[in-house]
Amino acid sequence: GKKNRLISRRLVLRALWIVFFAAAWRYQWIWQVFLFFVLAFSYLVYRQDRILYVSALNGEPRKNSSNARLMRSPGEWKMPFEELMLKTRDNVNIHCWLMTQPDFDLQRRVPTMLCLHGNVGNIGQRLHNWAGFFYNLRYNLLVLEYRGYGESEGTPSEEGLVLDAVAGLEFLANHKHLDKDQIVIFGCSLGGAVAIALGASKLPVTKHISGVIVENTFLSVLHMAGRVFLPLRLFPRALLRPFLRSQWSNYHSIGRVRAPVLFLCSTKDGVVGQGQMKALYKRACERDGKWLKGREPNDCQRIEFFEAGHDDIFLKEPAKYYLAVGRFVSSLTKDGNGSFARLLMSESKVREPILSSGPLF
Q1: How many Cα neighbours within 13 Å face the side chain of 286?
Q2: Sign of the C-alpha dihedral computed for residues 255, 261, 266 and 269 taken in this order
Q3: Neighbours of 63 (CB within 10 A)
Q4: What is the 3-state secondary structure (H, E, C) of the chain?
Q5: 332 contacts 182 by C-beta, under 8 angstroms
Q6: 241 Cβ partners below 8 Å, 6+ apart?
Q7: Is 0.70 surpassed by the pTM of this model?
Q8: For 336, what's the count of Cα atoms within 13 Å in the CB-facing half-sphere?
Q9: What is the pLDDT along the chain (361 residues), one digit of tens a residue?
Q10: How far is the C-alpha of 206 from the C-alpha of 166, rounded, in Å?
């Protein structure tokens, strides 16, 4: 059983360490290699936050205003928007864009999506995706920028990013013109981890979450560390865990998410890998091969995309992508009022929100 496999693994690890020290006693160069790995590990521990939270990559600008064309503001995509600075519970000001449907009656009826971005770059660099949600599915959007990213203040951390998401959710729940019972949380990669943590929270405001959408998200930072830095796989996770400032234990948190969950999984994801998304799905929906008590088939869905990589599903397979999101969100409402069901029912109606000459709308 599982317990016997765990005992066997520990015995093998102990045997390997004994062999290592016996060999190192005879061959001095082994100590030099060992010292190199210790120094490399120390460097990773020291720099872990900068490796995980990357506000700007390879000389790209941190601020949205310095981005390339069509990545500076929703106005470039002709989306009506309001620029906000929300104050979190620990008094950090975070930057957001609120995009609401121009038809006031539609604005009050349709779902609102709280969008949580990945670990690299600012919110402007995914404006193409936000425009797809806005125009194809007719959602209101609150796109939130984590502390330490873009125009937001502060320094990123696991606890801090969750507080940022809470601030966004509280803003939507108290907005007088938006339906507080149709709030959907969307997160890609690291954003999926933030979405899971928010959905698993016991804060009273989370009762307004009608659904959670997770796109290409990992099981935990430990799983990603072993995937990105292969030598770390030689060490037991229990040994590495105390050295991590950010854990993002999504595998354990996903089971506490009470709202329905949609998993968007790329089979060609070279960063996270589809195996982690499959494990998250099973953890959220099943136990020992059986459907979790209280879960309905529509409450837990997984859609695979066969042409896309880690963060480009909305570019490689836009029709399938927006249809999957639209159908899931529509299933969360009792009557489909103002939802995807009345606005988009076939792939032929999915519109590409950008042309070479500029925005289509």
Answers
A1: 10
A2: negative
A3: 15
A4: CHHHHHHHHHHHHHHHHHHHHHHHHHCCHHHHHHHHHHHHHHHHHHHHHHHHCECCCCCCCCCHHHCCCCCCCHHHHCCCEEEEEEECCCCCEEEEEEECCCCHHHHHHCCEEEEECCCECCHHHHHHHHHHHHHHCCCEEEEECCCCCCCCCCCCCHHHHHHHHHHHHHHHHCCCCCCCCCEEEEEECHHHHHHHHHHHCCCHHHHHEEEEEEECCCCCHHHHHHHHCHHHHHCCHHHHHHHCCCCCCHHHHHHHCCCCEEEEEECCCCCCCHHHHHHHHHHHHEECCEECCCCCHHHEEEEEECCCCCCCHHHHCHHHHHHHHHHHHHHHCCCCCCCHHHHCCCHHHCCCCEECCEECC
A5: yes
A6: 222, 247
A7: yes
A8: 12
A9: 656 666 676 777 677 767 766 666 666 666 667 667 777 777 788 888 988 999 998 888 999 999 999 999 999 999 999 999 999 999 999 999 999 999 999 999 999 999 999 999 999 999 999 999 999 999 999 999 999 999 999 999 999 999 999 999 999 999 999 999 999 999 999 999 999 999 999 999 999 999 999 999 999 999 998 887 777 777 778 888 888 899 999 999 999 999 999 999 999 999 999 999 999 999 998 766 666 666 666 789 999 999 999 999 999 999 999 999 999 999 987 545 444 444 444 455 566 554 333 333 3
A10: 8
Structure tokens, 77: 């995509």
